[in-house]
Amino acid sequence: MARPVVGIIGNSNLLHDQYPAYTGGRMDAEAVSDVAGCMPLLIPAHPDYVSTEELMATCDGFLFTGGRPNVHPEEYGETETEAHGAFDRSRDAVTLPLVRACVEAGQPFFGICRGFQEINVAMGGTLYPEIRDLPGRMNHRMPPDGSIEEKFALRHPVRLAEGGVFHKLLGATEVMTNTLHGQGIKQPGKRIVVEGYAPDGTPEAIFVEGAKGFTLAVQWHPEFRAGQDPVSRPLFEAFGEAVRDFARARKRVSQPA
Predict the structure, then answer these.
(1) Confidence category of residue 122, pLDDT binned at 50, 70, 90
(2) Residue 88 belongs to domain spanning
C-alpha cells in the first residue's frame, strides 16, 4: 500500500560553489520515512515551478524545514538590515501562502527552525533578527566547530505549558533540545500559541490555535536522530499519524458514493 506523501521544503544551494540546486537534508527524509512512516518528496521552493494548489493536491502533509537563509523582514513589515542575514525570497513566496492555505484546509504540517519562523510570519507574526544580541538572551546558534554530533548535541531545556498539546504529546513539562538558530519569534502571529520557552524566554514550541489539522512547530531540530531521541520520535510519529488521517479522509471524499 502506498504511503502518504510528505512534501519536504527544499533550499536553494550551489553545488561545488557553481551548480544551482535545490537540496534537502537526509535527516529530514529519514525522519519522515522511518519515524513518521510517510514518503518524503523534496519540493523545489520556487513559485515559478510549484503552486500552492499543486502542492496541496500532490502532498498529504508538509515538513517546513530549517535553512540558512532567513525570512525576509519585508514579509512582516520591517526593514532589511545587515543583522537579518541572507534571504530566500523564492522560498518565502512558496511557504508563506502554503502555510495559510494548509491552516484553512486542515492539511497537516510540521515546522522546524526556519519552518517554525515561517509559520509565525505566515500568521502575521514578527521575528528578531539576532537573538544573541538581545539583553539576557543566550547564543542559540550552531557551534562553529565540532562534529555533527557535537553541533546537534542537547544544549538547553525547553519548558512546556502544563496540560498543553506538547505536554500531552511528550509526557513532560520540560525537555532537553539542541539549538541551531540565530533568529526567533518577536511577536507571535494571530492564532499562534506559544507553549514552549527556552530558559532565556525564547519561544521554542508553537501551534496554530483552532486549526483543523496538525500545525505543530519547534525552534530546535528534532530531525537529528529522530528515531532514537525520546522528544523527537513522538513529534514525528504524531505528525505521521495526522498525515495518514488526512490522506484517508481525502480518499474517502474522492471516492464515488
Answers:
(1) very high
(2) 5-254
